[in-house]
Amino acid sequence: MTTQTITIPANAKKLIFQNEPGSHTIILEPNAEIEYVMSFKDTPTSTATTTPETASPSSIIQFELKGDNSKARIYGLFAGKNHDQVKFETRTIHSGNSTSAHTNVKTLLRDEAKSDYFGLIRIEKHTTGNDGQLSHDTMLLSKQAKSKSVPALEIEANDVKAGHSASVGQVDEEALFYLRSRGLTEIQARELMIEGFFEEMLMQISDQEMASTLRESLKKSLT
Questions:
Q1: How far apart are CA 120 and CA 136, in angstroms?
Q2: Rounded Cα gap, residues 79 and 113, in angstroms
Q3: What average pLDDT does the segment 115-132 reach?
Q4: Which of 25, 141, 173, 209 pairs with 8 at a CA distance of 20 to 30 A?
Q5: How many angstroms separate the Cα of 2 from the Cα of each of 5, 7, 46, 209?
Q6: What SS3 state is found at 200?
Q7: Residue 203 gets which letter from DSSP?
Q8: For residue 17, what are the contacts with CB-CB under 8 A and spacing of at least 6?
Q9: What pLDDT score does 195 carry?
Q10: Is position 202 within any domain?
Q11: Of 16-20, 113-117, 150-154, 167-171, where does mean pLDDT reach its minimum?
């Protein structure tokens, strides 16, 4: 597996969009900032003879916050249908001081689509003031769709903020009933709720032209 290394220089800001599987290492120098957006599916050749439980991840994205006051905002938006599969990892390694990395992942699956996600936060010894957060929210639109989420913390310092959360849910039937009572068909109501699942995260992306393109891509991934 080939890994591409990208260095964000001191005091620089960068936005990166990853729309294909692949492994990357992002190194952040002092006061560097990155906004990293990812949305992809594994190619059929990488998953045709494997399952998410047995396949090696095709994408490992590692953020090394080496410089003091470096910051990473990481967004993952994944949608799958039929037999789509995605297996990936994110790792945020805090080795500088007063670093911040917030990882937010949303996954929406229908039919027999599957996802497998491992997210690591590691805060190194002899560092102070670091903040690492991770959340993964999944919506399943069928009983056959499967999602596995494994968050992990490795904390070797005392002065830190760190936490993770994961949730799996289905379309809220009460909310669906409410929308139908307002004159929407069931299909329209479900589509509206599906769009709303990603919308809060899409609105956080600084490049709204990119967010608009991604919004349309996510719709196509589910229709």
A1: 12
A2: 9
A3: 96
A4: 209
A5: 10, 16, 15, 30
A6: helix
A7: H
A8: 37, 38, 39, 210, 214
A9: 77
A10: no
A11: 167-171
Residue 222 included in any domain: no
DSSP for 26-70 reads EEE-TT-EEEEEE-----HHHHTT--TTTSPPSEEEEEEE-STT-
Which of 12, 74, 19, 17 is CA-nearest to residue 204? 74
CA atoms within 13 A on the CB side of 114: 18
Would you say residue 23 lies in a domain? yes
Q: Which residues pair with 37 in a beta bridge?
A: 17, 75
Residues whose CB is less than 8 angstroms from the CB of residue 116 and which lie 6 or more positions away in sequence, other chains included? 52, 53, 55, 57, 86, 87, 88, 147, 148
Q: How many domains does the chain have?
A: 1
Q: What's this model's pTM, rounded to 2 decimal places?
A: 0.88
Residue 62 near residue 34, CB atoms below 8 Å: no
Q: Percentage of the chain with pLDDT > 90?
A: 70
Judge whether 13 lies within some domain: yes
Instruction: Please give the residue range of the domain that contains residue 7.
Output: 3-170
